[in-house]
């Protein structure tokens, strides 16, 4: 019996049967795949993709975490500040108020130079000598100079009335209510910066110096500052200190603890014995101080502020701003700007001889 009937040979029938079996089987398998396989495969494919996707997300998250930890995005270097280790913590300089102020000094004039001289109440003789010599507001004919002595407050109130009397007589004292100590010298400098920014913002230049520094204001103004263009901004110069590192020896005058400054190096700065800057920088330095952590080394701190504002210190010959005492001779002092460790009587003596002899050098 065969289902092909009698009109095909048995051999032919077997061939036909096999063909039918193959065709039906193929169709069936195809149908099964068509009905189930695509969804299954798609699902498989999808879950595989999901797996990959979630891995990607995880990696992304981990990368973000890494970026946040290391502070690096797009290979960017951390801000210069962080490299030096002083994080942005506000300086406690905003809360101090003026006890003695000279708000009117620049009301009717725009000084060419504001002298900000760091001093303590006891240094009466220094102030007197400076007023009569290089710090006289008439020291350089035809140039408006404003002189201010900067003070904090002292625990013993005995000097209070003396200081007020001195202030009433000379109108060249500013004082804020921070304790006048070595570790607060940065507050003193910032007080001066704040004064210039608030009451004399048009000043062309300002100089911060100390009462034991002789300043040849004549040379400073005539030779250095007057030749600069009237539009000079972001100008800062003095005795450049570059590549300095924190001193951890407690016996040093410049000792600084790891706690106060954990960084490994300082940014370039100018010795606090005397630095000169364009008037616009006063506000910029005050502004920077709002975000730069306080350290007591006044000059180093100003260096941090300059760095934060992207200001580069102008290098000058080291023979101009001297951080040691230059032995006096009129022709020597005629071509320097600062000399350190000066006694009150020397301020007067050197200035007088300089006036007499300057034309003979
Ligand atoms: C992500 O970081 C964690 C630990 O922080 C680690 O266990 C995990 O394997 C990381 N994942 C990827 C995808 O790198
Ligand atoms: C600095 O001044 C403030 C405010 O008067 C005072 O509290 C602080 O003790 C002073 N710092 C030092 C080191 O004298
Ligand atoms: C002070 O600094 C902030 C940023 O720290 C800036 O937005 C602001 O404009 C600055 N102001 C001045 C007067 O420079």
Helix percentage: 40-55%
Strand order of the largest sheet: 1-4-3-2-5-8-7
Q: Could you tell me the number of beta strands?
A: 9
CATH topology name of the largest domain? Spore Coat Polysaccharide Biosynthesis Protein SpsA, Chain A
Describe the structure.
The protein contains eleven helices and nine strands. Helix 5 (160-170) links the parallel strand 3 and strand 4 (173-179). The protein has two domains: 1-70; 83-357, Spore Coat Polysaccharide Biosynthesis Protein SpsA, Chain A (Alpha-Beta Complex). The protein has helices at 10-35, 37-70, 80-84, 124-132, 160-170, 185-199, 217-225, 280-289, 298-308, 330-333, 344-357, and strands at 98-100, 113-118, 145-153, 173-179, 205-210, 214-215, 236-241, 269-278, 338-339. 41% of the residues lie in helices and 14% in strands. Helix 6 (185-199) crosses helix 8 and helix 6 packs across helix 9 (298-308). Residues 178-179, 181, 183-184 line the site of one 2-acetamido-2-deoxy-beta-D-glucopyranose (NAG).
How would you sum up this structure in a few lines?
The protein has 361 residues and is α/β, with parallel strands linked by helices. It has helices at 10-35, 37-70, 80-84, 124-132, 160-170, 185-199, 217-225, 280-289, 298-308, 330-333, 344-357; strands at 98-100, 113-118, 145-153, 173-179, 205-210, 214-215, 236-241, 269-278, 338-339. It starts with 9 loop residues before the first helix and ends with a helix.
């Amino acid at each position: 019996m065969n289902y092909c009937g009698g009109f095909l040979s048995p051999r032919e029938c077997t061939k036909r049967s096999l063909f039918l079996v193959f065709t039906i089987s193929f169709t069936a398998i195809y149908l099964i795949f068509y009905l189930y396989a695509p969804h299954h495969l798609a699902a498989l494919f999808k879950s595989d993709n999901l797996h990959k996707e979630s891995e990607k997300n995880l990696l992304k998250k981990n990368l973000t975490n890494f970026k946040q930890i290391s502070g690096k995005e797009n290979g960017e270097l951390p801000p210069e500040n962080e490299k030096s280790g002083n994080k942005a913590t506000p300086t406690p300089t905003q809360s101090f108020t003026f006890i003695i102020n000279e708000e009117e000094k620049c009301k009717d004039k725009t000084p060419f130079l504001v002298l900000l001289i760091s001093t303590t109440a006891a240094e009466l003789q220094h102030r007197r000598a400076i007023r009569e010599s290089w710090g006289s507001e008439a020291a350089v004919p035809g140039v408006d100079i404003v002189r201010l002595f900067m003070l904090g407050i002292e625990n013993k109130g005995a000097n209070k009335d003396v200081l007020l009397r001195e202030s009433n007589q000379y109108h060249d004292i500013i004082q804020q209510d921070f304790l006048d100590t070595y570790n607060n010298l940065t507050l003193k400098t910032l007080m001066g910066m704040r004064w210039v920014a608030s009451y004399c913002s048009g000043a062309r230049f300002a100089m911060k110096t100390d009462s034991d520094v002789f300043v040849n204001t004549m040379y400073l103004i005539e030779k250095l500052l007057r030749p600069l263009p009237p539009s000079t901004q972001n100008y800062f110069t003095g005795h450049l200190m570059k590549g300095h590192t924190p001193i951890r020896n407690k016996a040093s005058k410049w000792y600084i603890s790891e706690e106060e400054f954990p960084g490994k190096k300082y940014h370039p700065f100018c010795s606090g014995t005397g630095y000169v800057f364009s008037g616009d920088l006063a506000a910029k330095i005050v502004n920077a101080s709002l975000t730069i952590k306080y350290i007591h080394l006044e000059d180093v701190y100003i260096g941090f502020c300059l760095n934060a504002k992207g200001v580069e210190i102008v290098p000058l010959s080291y023979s101009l701003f001297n951080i040691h005492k230059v032995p006096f001779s009129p022709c020597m002092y005629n071509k320097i700007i600062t000399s350190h460790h000066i006694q009150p009587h020397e301020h007067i003596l050197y200035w007088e001889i300089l006036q007499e002899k300057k034309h003979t050098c």
